[in-house]
Amino acid sequence: MTKKVRVRFAPSPTGPLHIGGVRTALFNYLFAKKHHGTFILRIEDTDQNRYVEGAEQYIIDALNWCGIPFDEGPSTALRTGSNKNEFGPYRQSERKHLYKQYADELIALGNAYYAFDTAEDLDFYRTDHEAKGKTFIYNWHNRLKLSNSLSLSAEEVQAKLDAGHEYVIRFKSPQDETLLLTDIIRGDIKIDTNILDDKVLFKSDGMPTYHLANIVDDHLMEISHVIRGEEWLPSLALHYQLYDAFGWEKPEFAHLPLILKPTGKGKLSKRDGDKLGFPVFPLQWIDPVTDEVSRGYKEDGYFTDAMINFLAFLGWNPGTEQEIFSLEELIHTFELERVNKSGARFDPDKIKWFNHHYMQEQNDDELAETFKNKHSELAEIDVNYISLVVGLIKERATFISDFWELSSFFFETPKTYDEKSFAKIMTNDARELMSELKQIINAVFDFTAENVQTEVKTWIGKKEVGFGKVMQPLRLALVGEMKGPDVFDIIYMIGKAETIKRIENVVSSL
């Protein structure tokens, strides 16, 4: 790739960053890093009516937690060594002085025009068309019949401007042309310009629409590739035309597939997560107006690596059977050409599968610290002991929140026993075996898991009883249920005295 790669993730601060936005940011990041390029965060906050306090910081925090920080962005020094002022500022609200001059330039070039139509006028035309079974489109077909600088004389236009009449600036979409658009993921697309409307580029409130601001910013920031969601595909024709109207070189475009509901039908929404019990946001979000709390993957106990690995496969395929990728491997392997056109089904069980995998790779000491901090019952327990416990049980865990249920018996004596197991296992024979086993264990001198196992197995062999006849009631005595890691590991961890105490407890319970 010869030209310098510069890509941008450009969310609006209208609420928490959806998981689909994180996927878009990730693909931009992977593409940039693969090609030794720059990943930019631009905040598109031209719609001040929808601005939500705290949303911008949430976006920044989410990208940082996901391990995909931006090189250029708002309120940061560039980490690329470039002059900060060369491409900033990175909030569109701080760039609004730029957009009017470009809108005026389009008018001067004959590619845009003033439109003075009131909301009432447009409502009238829409209603009139609907009554006739038609759809009202503001374009070549009717713009000369409406109130704009194409249908009015220059004097009339100037008079309206001088009188302070409200206006918008619309793009003048061409008639009877065929546009050939190119998308890295979707290939060539043909569009008949006769079906396009004259989009508003500059609003009556003095702010640009997304379309104008987006094109101007991408040009000024020298964006080489626009990688964004499929929902922007219908805007591609207008954006192509705007680049041509200004005489600017176009970036390359790639529109990512939708992330679908777990059923595979329809776009994934927050409602789906609420209904099925999984987050759709990377971090917890507290609505500043309603105080409603929305769950986040971080707070739910997911590891960053699991989330990134999972998101990478939502629409992308490496072309191999490999599923586990480090971020570095993703950067090396990622290609936009291997992104699918069709929507990607969100599978909440699959991200749990990834999380379970990455659980096994976590440092036991770090997991133990987190586990201890979450449970007051562990306050007085040596963290080194907790770390040993974690090493024994984490292969059965998906989240740190699973640890207590999997390991409580390492820290406290069982107070009850599983009723069904107790009724089935604790026969009179079992009672006699446990009473004798207690003596065998008590006699072990060098108390290690291996030595206890050797002595117990030797004793079982001499008794000529089935292995399960001893091990099942022993596990029930130690754990209270028929679960847990190797029995002899448990015995070693809790110690000789506690082991004997638990055997006595289960015998006396008969």
UniProtKB/TrEMBL annotation:
A motif ('KMSKS' region) lies at residues 267-271. Keywords: Aminoacyl-tRNA synthetase, ATP-binding, Cytoplasm, Ligase, Nucleotide-binding, Protein biosynthesis. It catalyses: tRNA(Glu) + L-glutamate + ATP = L-glutamyl-tRNA(Glu) + AMP + diphosphate. Pfam families: Anticodon_2, tRNA-synt_1c. Residues 4-353 form the Glutamyl/glutaminyl-tRNA synthetase class Ib catalytic domain. Its main location: cytoplasm. Monomer. A motif ('HIGH' region) lies at residues 11-21. Its EC number is 6.1.1.17. ATP binds at K270. Catalyzes the attachment of glutamate to tRNA(Glu) in a two-step reaction: glutamate is first activated by ATP to form Glu-AMP and then transferred to the acceptor end of tRNA(Glu). This is Glutamate--tRNA ligase. Belongs to the class-I aminoacyl-tRNA synthetase family. Glutamate--tRNA ligase type 1 subfamily. The keyword Repeat does not apply. InterPro entries: aa-tRNA-synth_I_cd-bd, aa-tRNA-synth_I_codon-bd_sub2, aa-tRNA-synth_I_CS, aa_tRNA-synth_I_cd-bd_sf, Glu-tRNA-ligase_bac/mito, Glu/Gln-tRNA-synth, Glu/Gln-tRNA-synth_Ib_cat-dom, GluQ/Sye. Residues 379-506 form the Aminoacyl-tRNA synthetase class I anticodon-binding domain. One of its GO terms (molecular function) is glutamate-tRNA ligase activity. It is found in: Cytoplasm. The keyword Cytoplasm applies.
